Amino acid sequence: MTKHCFPTVRPLAAALVLLLALPLGTAQAQLTRPSGAPRLVMPAAPAVATQRQADFIVVVVNSEPITNSEVRAKLMRAEQQLQQQGIALPPRSELVPQLIERMVSDKAQLQAAKESGLKIDDNAVETGIQTVARQNQIAVEELRRRLKADGIDYEQFRSDIRDELLISRLRQREVDSRVAVSEQEIDAYLREQTGQAGTASASPAALNLAEILVTVPENATPEQTAALEAKAREVLERARGGADFAALATEFSAAASRSNGGQMGLRSADRYPPLFVEATQSVRAGGLAGPVRSGAGFHILKVIEKRQGGLPDAVVAQTHARHILLRLTPQLTEAAAIEKLAGFKKRIMAGQADFAALARENSQDASSKEGGDLGWVPAGAFVPEFEKVMNALAPNQISEPLVSRFGVHLVQVLERRETAVSPRDQREMVRGVLREKKQAEAYARWIEDIRGRAYVEFREPPQ
Length: 463
What we know:
This protein is α+β, with helices and mostly antiparallel strands. It has 13 helices and eleven strands.
């Protein structure tokens, strides 16, 4: 297993809601109405909503309908997801037309995927469902229970997973695999960014922020708002006084990121709310900002990493670790894998077994040949659930068994260091930045083309 064995992938479901509210086409930065497409205007809701006894068609896409019940279900999930992420809900008069346009675009993409002959078998769907469960650190049965509690039909959930996989496979074939980055493009990017480096007003191209969200109810009184702001300032002062930010996030934050110590992950600055980018503009890595007021409440922000001008840092922290991976199968349940790895740890700690030898005999990935050695890796090389545990380990310490989307792991950190980024590695990192940007642009153009060629007939406004 190489150091890229756990690439950060686009999740199939939101961490808390367990289902993407808008499951397809997540690469689109925002929803826009293609030129020439009819604008759907939502009428103002009456004082007493009139319920229709029968379902009805809202829009037809290439002869396939989107019904009122489908729109209502998607709307419910979208609002759940926004609330769980601590984002203020926009008015339905704005959200619903955007949601319908996304559903139209998704329907057109699915039709294109099916016309191309792509299929997703049941085994792939089951693997996808298991991945969702592992990402949320729960068993599949618990996932089903939570879906039912949230009013989400399990068969519809399976269908959404299948559609997500189908679109992902089509995107890989039609878009991602055709994008290349030339050496000349890398040279031009480096020249441009080097010229911007050191400019005080330059905006960061990539950020990793952690947040603590103290929510403010929608109808809060001025007194309640003031009390919640005072609470946020108290938490900020504790963080400034040296308290562990991740522990504070776990204790006080209402945001979905609390399960990851508040960290929202390294991403381009334009994928963060402008409010967050502005608040941390002059804050160095490790610094704090806030409380920042949004529609959701008061945010306390910590800058974990900042890449000015998009260039990788001159010096990066690296971790040298090894692991034993057991993949889950019908024959090896999660509980059995955890028990087996716990036994391995007990034997290693007692001096009765060698970590590398156990990895060579048992680990189910390419690193087994190297005794589970993952090599030196920078931050962000592994998926968050793996990296969070790894980062908390001291050198030579062995973790408890941890569950990731790939299976169950036993991890040991061997050593840590700070090292300069070589010119070659810097170019490869820039290549990745440019490839991701070009893929996103190509995907947006492809979606627009698919949507533009679809016959769309808007019928009745949803209710």
